[in-house]
Amino acid sequence: MIDTFAGRIGAARLLALSVACGLTVSVTYIPQSLLTSIAGDLGVSPGLASVLATVAQIGYAIGILLLVPLAARLEVRTQVTYQALALTCTLLMVAVVPNILGAAVAFLAVGLVANISQVLIPAANRMSADYRRGQTNSVLVGSLLVGIFGGRVLASLCSEWIGWRATVCAFALAVLATIPATRWALRDAPAPEGGAGAHIQLVLTTVRQAVCNPILVRSALTQACVLATFNALWTVMVLHLTGPGIAWTLGQAGLFGLVGLAAGFFTPYAGRLIDRFGARPMTGWFLLVLLTAMVGILLTNSTPVAFGIVMFVATWANQSALSGNQVRALATDPQRSAQLNTAFSFIVFLGGGTGGLLGPIMYAWQGINAVATVAMGLIVLAIAQWRVIPRTATDRLPLSQLSAAKP
């Protein structure tokens, strides 16, 4: 049934979906690049302002559990349109908050409705043939990375030019502008996967399916550790680069996001490796690369050029592991990909929110070395989780052979 939609997602439509994914996820990460500006305007310390990044991530995880299951009964275009309109409104709320408490509530609301990419990715997977699913997934995952870091760079530069409040307004208008192209790309998307049951039933069904799917649970826990590492490091990046050791300006620190942006453009190559060699073995290699990069951070964090190279590798490996874990989790039941993705992403982003909170705490204690040490521990835990993911008969098959391998 999946192959029925194979021809429906050409390059132009994939580009439109990629732009929507990248932009909507970027708004949950812009607090990281605006920390100094927000802290100064609201009269709080940068450490306290860093809570906003964590709040946005936690809101994102909760929104995944509460909103993404609606894809089982709503047309994808309808759900994405309403969420994009809601995201525009919540960003405008952020732009007018008077204090840190108001900012926390507003960013929580932003996170709740910003999970549009978690609706688009499973829809795109269902619109792709088996042999292209890894590449399609990696393109969209790569667009998330481009959005996250492209947003960081733009937010940092714009905040110095027009202030952080006007910057948030600009992002709100950009989200609004993506709606027509996204609706066009989804014009003949697959019908909803489930019936018209009560919303609470959809959420409970999603939870039950996750609990009964050990491959999904283990893959999600593996990626939760990886995303916790990613957020722990990048949440404190501006603090580290503008600190006494390197002493860059806020604008220079924002441009460091180009490292992550470049990594995003290389993520689709990971999809080709997954398609060719299989999701499970390639995920293991990505995790080993990431562990090596954590050691590199300890050795290079005071040397900007070398540090940038290591962070490029770490960021690429992070997103490549996400692609591998997500492809494997969704492949357990492609016809229920939206519900599986809900459970997968909820676990992953809950771990990411934890990392976003852990990073500033460790940085305040012993600086970037403490953050990198904790990150190493998280990756070791991720590798342990990856090792115990139940094996299947198709683990070593490339995705191009999965259809032939299915009974």
TrEMBL record:
Keyword Transmembrane helix belongs to the record: yes
Topology in membrane: Multi-pass membrane protein
Xref: Gene3D superfamilies: MFS general substrate transporter like domains
Location in the cell: Cell membrane
Molecular functions per Gene Ontology: transmembrane transporter activity
Keywords from the named record: Membrane, Transmembrane, Transmembrane helix
Start and end residues of each Major facilitator superfamily (MFS) profile domain: 1-393
Bilayer-spanning residue ranges: 12-30, 50-68, 80-97, 103-124, 136-155, 161-179, 215-234, 246-270, 282-299, 305-322, 343-365, 371-389
One term under GO cellular component: plasma membrane
CDD domains: MFS_NepI_like
Pfam families: MFS_1 (PF07690)
Name recorded for this polypeptide: MFS transporter
